[in-house]
Specification:
The chain is an alpha/beta fold and 463 residues long. It has two domains: 2-215 and 404-462, Metallo-beta-lactamase, Chain A (4-Layer Sandwich); 220-402, Rossmann fold (3-Layer(aba) Sandwich). The protein is 31% helix and 22% strand. It is built from 14 helices and 23 strands. The chain has helices at 51-56, 76-79, 82-87, 98-121, 130-138, 220-236, 250-263, 277-288, 295-302, 319-323, 346-353, 372-377, 408-416, 432-446, and strands at 2-3, 12-19, 28-32, 37-40, 68-70, 93-96, 140-142, 149-150, 155-161, 169-175, 178-182, 205-209, 240-244, 272-274, 313-315, 332-336, 359-363, 382-385, 388-391, 395-398, 424-428, 450-451, 458-462. An eight-stranded mixed beta sheet has the order 1-23-2-3-4-5-6-7. A hairpin with a 4-residue loop joins strand 3 and strand 4 (37-40). The protein is globular. It starts with a strand and ends with a strand. The structure holds zinc ion. Zinc ion is lined by residues 73, 75, 164, 185.
């Protein structure tokens, strides 16, 4: 389907929504101008029944003909098919910020191992190999925020801070007087660690995310009190607090908040286990890029505070160390991946601790339909974990403001800043009901011409 065709424009560019339209995951957008083809993101489809088939399906364009790939941030639903793109013939240049490249290298290796073991179970060939990840890294260049990258056809590209995870960027395309901005995921600013999302004030076209397009988060202060109350209750009842956390950003934010509460003695000091080699490695990268943090955190660091470090913090890298957590006395806090309880070490802890009434499971992020996390979020009393039926007697609670995404009101405020220049907003990267809801709000409240494209849709832009 073609939306709003403007074939007669001289400076016309086609934008095709190959993934991440009508769904949160699989972000993949193609811009085609006269002589160049540019992709933004190349993510994995996750958390749905047909996702694996979609991830494995051939690209609907020839990767060999693509000149550039710009990567908004290191989350796997934005990067997970890059090695497949390279394996299938892409020889262009990949661009992102430096932390995004470094985090992506880690995450893609991790994802490669998970995909390979899933493929082995299903007796299918692996999606890609370590070699494909290495080849991707070789094509990958980095640039700082606000530095123009000149391309052909008078197009320049630059990154702006999206405030979503370390190194996350909005991609700003400029050509003559026209500007097109793809937001990637937009941070839930202000956040404990990162700088705020930069405002966009002069875009003609905006391609924006909508994960929480139809919902609002509770306030940050409430969330800290909420976490404090949960930890106090777990300590009092000698229970276990399980937090299935995403390795990037969420884990570091939670760690940072627990560290602050421990240091100010707001909570009793109980053992905290980060049970994820990936989250531990990611945390090390966070420590390296302290210049990307907000001024409060930078001030703390310059005053001598060591970040992500306190006496009862245990980093369990090995399988043996992970198993030993079972033997550690309760109360305790276990933070482990994966964030949607789709594999990873958290499922072992869930299998063991969900039947206990003294356990609290804290959900801190988006749970895709079909995932174990989504079943628990929706109140399932029995779930299947690692082939066994498990009774859920634990308390399941949700803190939505841990989300690293803007909520509906914040997305609206973000779009409002560019209201004077914007010709069209494309609402993507959300479940359809979320995208449609935000689209409607943009139209009704701001009078913006907004649409929620479907996967495969193409649109001609006057750009
Ligand atoms: Zn993201």
């Amino acid at each position: 389907m073609t939306l709003n065709p403007k074939n007669n424009q001289t400076n016309s560019t086609t934008l095709t929504f190959h993934g991440g339209a009508g769904s949160v995951t699989g972000s993949n957008f193609l811009l085609e101008t006269g002589s160049i083809k540019i992709l933004v993101d190349c993510g994995l489809f996750q958390g749905c029944n047909v996702c694996e088939d979609k991830t494995r399906a051939p690209f609907s364009y020839d990767p060999a003909t693509i000149d550039y790939l710009f990567v908004t941030h290191a989350h796997i639903d934005h990067t997970g098919r890059i090695p497949k793109l390279v394996k299938d013939g892409f020889k262009g240049t990949i661009y992102s910020t430096l932390p995004t490249k470094e985090l992506s290298g880690l995450m893609l290796m991790d994802s490669m191992r998970i995909l390979a073991s899933e493929a082995k179970e299903d007796k299918k060939p692996p999606l890609y190999s370590e070699k494909d990840v290495e080849n991707s890294m070789r094509l990958w260049k980095t640039e700082q925020y606000h530095t123009d990258i000149p391309l052909k056809d008078n197009i320049t590209v630059s990154f702006k801070d999206a405030g979503h995870i370390l190194g996350s960027a909005m991609i700003e395309f400029k050509r003559g007087s026209k500007k097109l901005v793809m937001t990637g995921d937009l941070g839930n600013s202000p956040t404990p660690l990162l700088k705020d999302t930069e405002p966009i004030t002069d875009a003609n076209y905006l391609v924006m995310e909508s994960v929480y397009g139809d919902r609002n988060h509770e306030s940050r202060n409430e969330r800290k009190r909420f976490l404090e109350n949960i930890i106090e209750s777990v300590a009092l009842h000698k229970g276990v607090l399980l937090i299935p956390a995403f390795s990037v950003e969420r884990t570091q934010e939670i760690l940072f908040e627990i560290e602050q509460m421990v240091e100010t003695k707001q909570i009793p000091s109980i053992p905290v286990f980060i049970d994820s080699p990936l989250a531990i490695a990611v945390t090390d990268i966070y420590k390296k890029y302290d210049d990307y943090f907000n001024k409060d955190v930078k001030y703390g660091i310059s005053s001598g505070n060591e970040i992500f470090s306190f006496s009862q913090l245990h980093l369990t890298k090995t399988r043996e160390a992970s198993k030993a957590i079972f033997a550690a006395h309760d109360p305790k806090i276990i933070i482990a991946g994966s964030g949607m309880s789709h594999g990873g070490r958290i499922v072992h802890h869930e299998k063991r601790y969900l039947p206990k009434q003294t356990t609290t499971l804290l959900i801190v992020g988006y749970q895709a339909p079909g995932s174990l996390g989504r079943q628990l979020q929706e109140g399932a009393k029995k779930v299947t974990i690692l082939g066994d039926e498990v009774a859920v007697n634990a308390k399941v609670v949700e803190a939505r403001s841990y989300s690293s995404h803007k909520d509906s009101d914040a997305l609206l405020r973000f779009a409002e800043k560019t209201i004077d220049s914007v010709e069209k907003v494309f609402v993507v990267m959300g479940e359809m009901k979320s995208s449609t809801f935000l689209t409607q709000r943009l139209r009704d409240y701001l009078g913006i011409d907004a649409v929620a494209p479907r996967e495969g849709d193409s649109v001609m832009l006057d750009f």
